[in-house]
Amino acid sequence: MTGEDCEDCPCGGDGGPVQPSIYTDRRARMEVQRRDIAKLLATVGGLTAIASLTAPLAGLTQVFERGYNGPVYSDGVHLVDGEGERISEDRLAEGEQLTVFPEPRPGIEDAPTLLVRFPESAYGGGTNMAYTVSGYAAYSKVCTHAGCMVSDREGSTLVCPCHFGKFDPTAGAAVVGGPPGRPLPQLPITLTSDGFLVATGDFEAAVGPGGGE
Ligand code: FES
After folding, report:
1. Superfamily grouping for domain 13-213
2. 188 Cα–ligand 1 center, Å
3. Closest ligand 1 atom, residue 178 Cα
4. With left for phi above 0 and alpha for psi between -120 and 50, is residue 211 left, alpha or beta?
5. Which of 2, 141, 145, 167 to mutate to test ligand 1, by most ligand atoms within 8 A of the CB atom?
């Protein structure tokens, strides 16, 4: 599939136990805009109109754009939820997940990250266990195929709704289905002495599409 196929993406909502995030609202607004534009195309018709409006439509398929060249995370940066609250060790039960972000600082506005928690025994090959703590692992939420948010879930499998890319969070977010060409990059995390999750560095690989596909 290609990015153009995203015109049919069900990107409008999170599924399963995913916690609400700023991206949920953003995608919903974008979906409304996309449908409005699609109605306009149907009304106006004609190849000229289609050609002129295709580019903006395609732009809506990529819901994350990194506008910052430096590291997203660095050693000691706290993980926070959509309200900016720091993540304590007891925040998630095993099997749960949450969309988190780097604690805001100049140059960083958005960097969606999937925080998951499983029994440590559930993790197999692929997950860098030195990057996990107390059953927590963190991966970029930006799909490595075309940049949509990996916002759905089937059992323990993380699912991107755009082209149904599937990632196994217990195996280093390895691709287990769909078109993505590489895993979701893992974020090294640890706990502070007062029990909050922080990064110990940046994502192990490039965030989003490209970067080795
Ligand atoms: S953007 Fe295509 S599978 Fe995620």
Report:
1. Rieske [2Fe-2S] iron-sulphur domain (2.102.10.10)
2. 24
3. 3
4. left
5. 145
The model's pLDDT over 16-70, given as tens digits with 9 standing for 90+, comes to 333 333 333 344 344 445 545 445 444 444 433 433 343 333 333 445 565 556 6
pLDDT tier, 99 (very low <50, low <70, confident <90, very high otherwise): very high
Residue with tokens 């991107």: 160
The pLDDT tens digits for 138-197 are 999 999 999 899 999 999 999 999 999 999 999 999 999 999 999 999 999 999 999 999
- Domain ranges (residues) in the chain: 13-213
**Backbone angles phi and psi of 120, in degrees to 5:** -60, -30
Q: Ligand 1 centroid to 121 CA: how many Å? A: 29
Instruction: Report whether residue 188 contacts ligand 1, using a CB cutoff of 6 Å.
Output: no
Strand, coil or helix: what is 158? strand
208 CA from centroid of ligand 1 (Å): 10
Q: Is the CB of 159 under 6 A from ligand 1?
A: no
In the DSSP assignment, the letter for residue 41 is H
CB-ligand 1 contact for 208 (6 Å cutoff): no
Per-residue pLDDT reduced to its tens digit, 106-129: 556 567 899 999 999 999 889 999
Helix (H) or strand (E) holding 189: strand 189-191
Q: What is the pTM of this model?
A: 0.71
